[in-house]
Structure formats: C-alpha cells, structure tokens
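Recap from last week: sequence in, structure out.
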Amino acid sequence: MQTRINFFKIGTFVIVLFVLMLIFIFWLGKYAFVVTKQDSYMIYFKESVSGLNIDSPVKFKGVQVGKVENISINPKNSQEIKIKISVIENTPIKKDNYATLGTLGLTGLKYIELKGGSKDSNLIQENKYNERVINSKISVLGNLENSSKDISKQLTQLLIQTRILFSNENINNFSELLNASKQTAVNTQEITQYIINNENKLTQILNNLNDLSITSKSSFNNMSDSANSVKESALKVMELSQKVLNEVEKGSFDLKTISQSTINNFNDVLNQFENSLIKSEELIEQLKENPSDILFKKNKQKLGPGE
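Predicted structure tokens:
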C-alpha cells in the first residue's frame, strides 16, 4: 500500500511539472492562446521590392500592425508586384491611406509603411474581385533612383551637345566670327574718326539742306503766285470776251459806242497777263541756265551787257 502511494505522488509531480514547463515555454515564445483575427489587403508596387520578404513587418505610421503574407508578380500586369499583407482586425485603413517601402537601417531589408489617411475618409471596401487594395507610392529610394536616371540621361545629352559645340568646325567658325567682329570694330572706328574730322563739312551740308528747303519753298510759292496770276488774267480775258460776244449777239456792238473804261479794263488785263508770263519765263530760264543758284546759292546769275 505504501508503494502505491509513492507512485501516485511521483506521477502527480511529473504531470504538474510537465504542465508548468508547457506554460513556461508558451510564455517564453509569447504564444497567445487566443488567436488574433487578421484582415487581408493587396498592394501593387511598380518599383523593385528587393529586400522585402515574407513575414516582413507592416507598419502603420511607425506602429507594427501586420506582416507580409505573399509576394508575387501580378498576372494581369507584369510590371507590377502583387503583395498580400495581413493586418490586425479593425485597423483603420482608409481610402486615402497609401503604402510605400521603407528600409530597416543599413541591412538593406525592407518593410511596408502605411501612411496618409484622414479622419473623415471612408474605410477601404472590397472591389469586384473581393480584394481590398491599398494604393501605393514610389519610395524615397525609388524616386532617388528615377531622378538619378534622369540626371544621368541629361548629363549624357549635355556632354554630347558640348562635344558638338566645341568641335573643330565650330571652333573655326567662332574664330572667323571673332575676326569679322574685330574688322567691324575697326571699320566703325574709322567711320567715327572720319565723321569727327569732317564735322565742319557735315555741318555745312546740313545748313545747305536747310537753305535748300527754304529756297525751294520760296520758289514754289513764286511759281504758285505766277500760276494764280495767269489763271486770274485768263479768267478776266474770258469774262471780257464773253461780254463782247454777248454784245455782238445782241447787235449792239459798235466800236464808236464802246466806252473808254471798257478799253482801259481790257488793257489792264492784258498787261497783267503779260507780266505773269514774263515772271514765269524768267523763273524757267533761271532753273534752266543754273539750277545750283536755286539749290545752294553758290553761283551768281550771269548778267547780259548793259544789265
């Protein structure tokens, strides 16, 4: 009987010790007896996900809320990487949240960072494929890589253009242009010096041009006056002739009855007409014999004997 009691105590002790060891092991592994529910989301990245692995952490504004479940190529678009993540249930991931890749220190390992999200935005709902998709944006390293490619491309183009600019042909053309510019400067200096040396002559030419404008204006006025005088004389002759013609048609024309005043008027008209013709002939002769007298007033008109 005593032997049975000892075995019972030993068995009880072993079982209790085994249970305590299991509890200790679960505690060390932080194993939870209650399974936490997870929500699944899809993310499509267009950049390289090198360094991102399954079970890599998913952080929401710095707080770990899940992990990466699967990484694959999008069968509908080979330029996208399809990533499935699991996030703690009831994590408020909204439509204006977006995912980007972050780097864990200097190890090169990456994780997914969820950013954005406003208070009034709606939660992400399932689409027609029964997927809840989080929008993605290029990471800082991705932007830097793209910018480096663009800068490299632009530098290459700049080097090519610089090589073309400083080609032997362009250098020769530039040298010719400098020589032509130098000759132009010399010619400009000579012209300037010529103008300075002939300042008096240029002043005289300007004065002559001024005198020419004044003289021409006076000559044109004289010609206009002469033409007006001729026109007036012609009109008076026409009026007198019409008057005589009317008298003849009436039959009252009689040389004896013509008044002395009518004859005097006729003589005055003829004298004015004659004077106008004489002035016009003199002006025409002056222009014909020596036009320089009218333009520059340097030559004097030659007078005849007794004038």
